[in-house]
Amino acid sequence: MNKKLLFMAMAFSLSLATTSCSGDDEANGGEVTDNGGSSGNQGSTAETLTVSGPVSGTWTKNSTVNVIGHIAVPKGQSLVIEEGVKVIFASAGVGVNHVPIEFTVDGNLYVKGADGNPVLFSTEERLRTADNVFAGLWGGIVAGETCDEMLIDHAVIEYTGGKVIEGSPAATAGVYTAGDDAYPQITTNNINGRYVITNSVIRNGWSDGIYLMGGKAIIEGNTFIANGYDGAEAVNCKAGVQADVVGNVMFSPNTNGLKLSSSGQSETRGQARIQAYNNTIINAGWRRDGEKGGSVYAEKNALVNVYNNLMVNCKFRAQTPKYSDPDNPAGGYASASVIDYNYYAGGSQKSDIVFPDESNVAYAWEGYNCKNKNYNTGVVDANSVIATEADGKNPLFVNFPVNDVPLTGYIYDDAWDFHLIASSPALGGAYAGTDREGYFCTAGLAVGGSLYKTSLAEKHFGAFGMK
Fold it and tell me: Rounded distance, CA 413 to CA 263, Å?
């Protein structure tokens, strides 16, 4: 799978607002202090800005933007963030209650990082430590019901997941519930929205990596790391979503790499439809109690095609709870779904967290072959490759110690390489048909004046073949 999302420039171009944040200060009520050497943020000169309140226009290449309060792209306006920009959210939050800072997108957002020069969304550098992986130091990006389109390309989003409390914009807007929820790293909530999230690293968050509550989406070529402290997924889809989730690496999500649900389906919010193929999911589910987590979880009338994925050292195979009650938004997944031709590999290491009163699973191969009420045996994964105690089905990565990395570990090593060597068994046996391709492989998805197309399925398991 080529991590570069294919796109074609369209003949039309989108006219974006180019008025500087500082110039709009009086009109939009925002608080902006320009500490750089220019009068605004429109030229090619890198700047240092301090912002709060409404934001729009362009944050120029390699600038630093210090966010000291909630920020929002207003409805009908746009914000472009160029390559190399560092957006630093103050961990102190807002007000006496220290409400985690939220980045609300009611207009449009275009994050245009580059290979080797991504856009960074983070907190203060001194706090970017292993101890704070799940500290939830800021809120996250919340694309609201009036966000028509959002592009996130070559970005790093980290240290999110602050608690939603009284005073949180998402609570005021009714997106999340104060006291009950924590911010995902990215949220979408417009059933008519268009979203492309690609070539990005989404890591170190208390809650989900991406939480889709609506819209058409391409999620391709990303790396998800340590998503969820207490029950969360790398990618979580709900009703109103039509998405392609392709060619991603998902390392140590608390619960699942993919949770695919049509929860919330109604006359106005349609059935969730997801195509998920050529993803590599590692170490999923071990930090979650019970049997809900493990790799893939499809439920509540979600219509899904899940194939050619490579699961390594995950706690369980794909689960489809209430599968005997299909096509029911309160029951099992849609009967037309196909979850098959996946590859489940397991190392020899034992988990240091075992729940003896629940599944009692301690090894990946054990979880793949246990008696699990959510396994639709003979239907789901009927043609999949599944490790056993005697044969772990090592996929033979270029560089990843399958038998050594702790199952509950969540610290990522940048030296790892999930390409497959020439003798890898995961290079063969994948689904070779063309009837399950992504929704946006041909027609594409227009965002920001370009037409993005999902990559076609590769005939191997996982995000990468040979180099």
Answer: 35
